Amino acid sequence: MKANLLLLFSFLGLPIPNSIAFIGEIGLGGELRMVPGMEKRASMVAKLGYEKCIVPKSAEKSLASMGLEKMKIIGCKNLKEVFNIVFPSHRHLVVY
């Protein structure tokens, strides 16, 4: 998911904060989907010291209950929600 987000945010001229990780897949309609090994990936991201991890909404509860050190799990349904969380002061840029 991060590669796709890098393209989108780069096009808008906005750098992704280093403290945020992304786990999941982006569908053609902009929806976020789970990928295999969500728990293992989240655990590794937490060990690497990320402060926040954005995941598909459907994975939020199970990952949040894992107690992943000091990392906050944030569930999103689509790219619009991701954008609004990562760049709250730039909400006017997202139209769809």
What can you tell me about this protein's structure?
By secondary structure, the protein is an alpha/beta fold. Helices cover 34% and strands 18% of the residues. It contains four helices and five strands. The protein has helices at 2-11, 38-47, 60-64, 79-86; strands at 20-22, 25-26, 32-33, 52-56, 72-76. Strands 1-4-5 form a three-stranded parallel beta sheet, sandwiched between helices. The protein is globular. The mean pLDDT is 84.
Alpha-beta classification: alpha/beta
Main sheet makeup = 3 strands, parallel
| Poorly predicted regions | none
Mean pLDDT: 84
Number of strands: 5
Helical stretch tally: 4
How much of the sequence lies in strands comes to 15-25%
Distance between the termini: 19 Å
Cross-sheet strand order for the largest sheet = 1-4-5
Shape: globular
* Radius of gyration, taken over Cα atoms and rounded to an integer in Å: 13 Å
State the order of secondary-structure elements, H for helix, E for strand.
HEEEHEHEH
- Percentage of residues in helical conformation: 25-40%
